[in-house]
Structure formats: C-alpha cells, structure tokens
Design brief:
There is one protein chain. The chain has about 120 residues and is an alpha+beta fold. The chain is about 25% helix and about 30% strand. The strands form 2 sheets. Strands 1, 2, 6, 7 and 8 form a 5-stranded antiparallel β-sheet that branches. It has a 3-stranded antiparallel β-sheet with strand order 4-3-5, with no helix packed on it.
C-alpha cells in the first residue's frame, strides 16, 4: 500500500484512471528519465510503504523486480523464473529477492538473464 498516494498525485500532477496505487507507481516511473532500474529506484524513494513489485515490458522483453520490506521469492528452472511472496511451492531452489533492491531481467531469446546489478532502495 502506498501511504502517500494522494500526496504523490498532487505533487507530481498525476492523472490516474483508477484508485489503484500500482497505477500511481507506474505513472511516477513514466515521469523519470533513466534506465528502468533507475526509474524504479526513484519511484520507490517517492512512495511511502513497503512494496514488492514486478513490472513487465514488451520491447525489449524485460522484467523489473523490486522489493522493499515485503517478502518476495523466486524459483528458477530451465523453463524460466517463478515469483511468489513465500518460497513454499516454488520450483527449484527458492531464493529470496534482496530486500531494498531493484533490478531487471531481460529475455535474450533463450531465457531471462540478469541485465543489471541491483540498485539499493
């Protein structure tokens, strides 16, 4: 939950189409220059509250993974990455996403690869 949802809308003159706090986070990222990781780190610095966030981009195919406070785990197999709040039930050896970090995975035609080092939130 974004605790300063209304404040962010006013300060950044955002025009959300819903009352969903995820939409405000996406609108904030769209306002910031830089890489997806840099924009995610800036967005997280603006929003108050814990979060676990996954974002998908189409071209090129990328997956943003951000975590601050909330649990977020992943399992990896030859078929891909799987994400969940809790590790139970994830395939492979479940690992915890580093708290207070954001990073991007990119699809290279064969699978997801880490595109960048994590940025600390």
């Amino acid at each position: 939950m974004v605790h300063n949802y209304d404040q962010l809308i006013r300060e950044h003159r955002l025009v959300p189409q819903s009352r969903c706090d995820s939409e405000v986070l996406a609108l904030l990222m769209a306002r910031c220059p830089g890489t997806i990781s840099q924009r995610s780190a800036w967005m997280a610095s603006q929003a108050l509250g814990d979060m676990a966030l996954l974002g998908i981009w189409r071209r090129p195919a990328r997956l943003l993974v951000s975590r601050r406070g909330r649990p977020l785990h992943f399992g990896q197999t030859n078929a891909g990455f799987y994400f969940a709040s809790l590790p139970e039930g994830l395939p492979g050896q479940a690992k915890q996403v580093i708290d207070r970090s954001t990073r991007v995975l990119v699809y290279d035609g064969t699978g997801l690869q880490l595109e960048s080092k994590p940025i600390r939130l």
